[in-house]
Amino acid sequence: MKSDAPVFRPGYSVFALILLIGLALLAAFVQVPHPAAAPGSLNGADVAWMLTATAFVLIMTPGLSFFYGGMVRPKNVISTMLQSFVALGVITVLFYFVGFSLCYGDSWHGLIGNPLTFAMLRNVGTAPNPAFAASIPFVLYFAFQLKFAIITPALITGSFAERVRFKGYLAFMVLFSLFIYCPLAHWTWHPEGFLHKWGVLDFAGGTVVHISAGVAALAGALVLGRRSSHLRPSSFSTPNVPYVMLGTGLLWFGWFGFNAGSALGANELAAVSFVNTNLASGAALIAWILVEIVRGGKPTAVGACTGAVVGLVAITPAAGFVDYGQSILIGVIGALVSHAAVHWQNSRTTIDDTLDVFPCHGLGGIVGMLLTGVFAAKDGLIYGKTSLFGYHVLGLFIVVAYSFVGAWVLLKVTDRIFGLRVKLQEEELGLDLSQHEESTYHIDEEFERTYRRDPMTENANQLV
């Protein structure tokens, strides 16, 4: 007779645990230099603001988990939220050991950083690094940039929500961060990065974060295919609108650190980008609601929240480079483009981008990047200068192509090694139970015993 306890199948987890223990021992006992700040080398106001901004950006990832968790079926809420939340741990460790070096280490032909330059925060201490931020501890710059690295792969999860295997997602998240996010950050934000040298502007991550995540999300939706529920008529409606609104509020709040923090100090630029962030988001919120009404519907809370987030995405690359009124126009254009793309994708294609990540984050970031080239003070297209806009268009093609092809390859590799798509029975059961044995609903003891014995039985498949 089978035991009621689940069969222990460690698989790759034993190797991962041993690796983590080994890395922890390495970090604890290998001494690396951490230069201390000289007296008078730091600006107290800048340090205080950047500590605050870093905490703001951190809260965005839990906010994203509520935003996404509120838009999936009740049986997938926990798994969807965890896919965002787990990045707080995985990317933190990855960035400490190698990610920060790949982004900001000694440049190799403007393409990637030396992985050993800042490995385990080598030469990253309280002393400032003038190449990146001259008035704050370099370790604080690391902490700030870490939060960007955390939320980027979490954004992708909305595209394949409700059907991705947890271990496959973890593997893809690591590969995406190493092979797509880190190179893009180096190209764009490192002084020697080739996009940076071209003059391509990305104030706070429209290119590095949102375009890369949105395009990778499109690749993810195509590789994993459509949900079983997407293949048949469904009466599903958003189950938890308050979660969506809470997530939006946390994202909006954290975005002030995301954008204004990218000024890297308590200065005029931070104030301008702070205000531009709010103006664009507010304008996009209104635009999205008005389009809903014009199309014959009623204003919805989810629509208002989606519009606000799209406005935040669109202004991100431009926040420190444009005037206040231009930020409103950027928010409105971003909302109109994304709304049209969401409608077209869901009504005219078979692409199952579960939470519309590509239309909102991918296209929102693309709109913001192009309009930065149009409106950027003194160098934008409206000032009669074409060079900046031309480089933005060229940079856009490179980033989109690299992100899509790279994500597609990484997804295929991950699928081959770990498996990405859950089985049909697991999908019907819900990922909360099939992947994590947790649920927001009461599960009776008889079912739990049946599921633990054989999760692929017909009985388990029938309980949804």
TrEMBL record:
Predominant location of this chain? membrane
Question: What are the alphabetically sorted keywords of the record?
Answer: Ammonia transport, Membrane, Transmembrane, Transmembrane helix, Transport
Question: Where in the numbering of this chain does the Ammonium transporter AmtB-like domain appear?
Answer: 48-441
Cellular component aspect of the GO annotation: plasma membrane
Q: Write the signal peptide boundaries.
A: none
Which protein, by its recorded name, is this?
A: Ammonium transporter
Q: Where are the transmembrane segments?
A: 12-32, 47-68, 80-98, 131-156, 168-189, 201-224, 236-258, 270-290, 302-322, 328-345, 357-377, 389-411
* Localization: Cell membrane; Membrane
Has the keyword Transport been applied to this entry? yes
**What PANTHER family would the database entry show?**
AMMONIUM TRANSPORTER 1, AMMONIUM TRANSPORTER MEP2
Gene3D superfamilies reported for this sequence: Ammonium transporter AmtB like domains
> Could you confirm whether the keyword Membrane appears in this record?
yes
The record's similarity note reads: Belongs to the ammonia transporter channel (TC 1.A.11.2) family.
Q: Which GO terms describe its molecular function?
A: ammonium channel activity
What membrane topology does the UniProt entry give? Multi-pass membrane protein
